[in-house]
TrEMBL record:
Multidrug efflux pump. InterPro entries: MATE_fam, MATE_MdtK, MdtK-like. Belongs to the multi antimicrobial extrusion (MATE) (TC 2.A.66.1) family. Its main location: membrane. One of its GO terms (biological process) is monoatomic ion transport. It is found in: Cell membrane. This is Probable multidrug resistance protein NorM. It comes from the Bacteria. It comes from Candidatus Pullilachnospira stercoravium. The chain crosses the membrane at residues 25-46, 66-95, 107-129, 149-173, 180-201, 207-229, 250-273, 293-313, 334-358, 370-389, 410-429, 435-454. GO terms for cellular component: plasma membrane. Keywords: Antiport, Cell membrane, Ion transport, Membrane, Transmembrane, Transmembrane helix, Transport. GO terms for molecular function: antiporter activity; xenobiotic transmembrane transporter activity.
Amino acid sequence: MRNYERTDGPAVRERKKGDMTEGPITRQLVLFALPLFVGALFQLMYNTTDSVILGKFVGADALAAIGATGTTAFGLLNIAIGVTNAFTVVISQLFGAGKHDQVRRAVANAMWISLVLGILLGFVGFFGARPIMRLLGTPENIMEPACMYVMIYGGLIIGQVFYNAASAILKALGDSKTPLYFLIFCSLLNIVLDLAFVLIWEGGVPGVAWATVISQILSAVLCMAYMFARYPQLRFGREELKIDRRLMREMLRIGVPLGITNGLLSVGMMVVTGVVNSFGSDIVAVYTVGGKVSQIATVTFSQLAFSFSVFAGQNFGAKKYDRILEGSRKALRMVVGLSLLSTVVIILAANQVALLFLNAGETEILAGSAQMIRIQACFYVFLGAIWVYNSALRGVGDVRTTVYSSVVELCAKVGLSVLLARLVGYVGIWFAEPIGWILGLLVSGIVFCGKKWMGRAEFS
């Protein structure tokens, strides 16, 4: 029998509002994913704005500098995303089972984890920036601005950690709109600050870093304040603020492997970046533009796939396994369709999209960027599929398989990048990542379709 805290009041009303355990599946997935999609567009917009402003108004070296920091800065963020994803998994299962008293305790424990994580990542980002940049073989002409960016962004990443925590908690309740509103605010503020720091105060790459962290910290504070004001059932008292060993253990059981896996993936991408760096700053710029375009091109189906984690978590908590299987089939069909559409559009418009980041006179970088974009676009369907299956497995708490899948993907990316770069030059690097997608998909796809995850006992 489900342990509802009470049969009326805001807790139950909010449960019905965000409940994905009943109703039309396709409609629920699309409606939940739409705010995530819009939010991802704004996230990309302000990340892309950094590159566009630096590339257009400062120069190709500044663009290459921020590109050289990409894997390091994103690595820190990726660890935070992995750990905070555990909040969505645990809280969505508790919410799906109607255990609202435990939801409050889980939120309190999530705050403790976020605080410690933000401090640790900040320490690594600030003090590890220069050694990491040197280890990656960053070209000397872009070394100093690259180090400054990582020190500023990484040292103050705690704002991003708490925003991700709030976003993960809200998504677990089926609310993907509130994180969107604050992400839009953060994105617009970041763009304004980018322009001010670069064009008015001539801050260059460090100025872009300051613009990013200021907007992130302010967004995190406002999102947290609104979350507790909007959802009274999430407010925890002194008693609930105490560490709950069982909840903490479950969050760390899921979050630590995901965080470590994301960290390892980022380390792998750092190795790839090191290989790219060996070809000079022009190829670094090509890699930067190609990566940005891939993020833009995959945003539609990536958010639809990621939304399935919440759907799977709630239905796993409610023991509706057939609904999870039905939802996975519908999600996969939509993701495949959108990924194929993205492939066609990007292949046809590769040159025009690359021009958003570069000046027309930089012909060699433009040609290289278009080449990378077209190569990777041919494999988007595999990327979409692995996102669906990994999201489903993450939602039901099967972290082990997602870790195995990610490790296989990582080894393929790193090993093939090094090997193919030696055999055929930098173009070989553009093929290494898609091959990794395919091999990782085999792992997660086989396990999910094998249905062994049904035998797991949900967290209760």
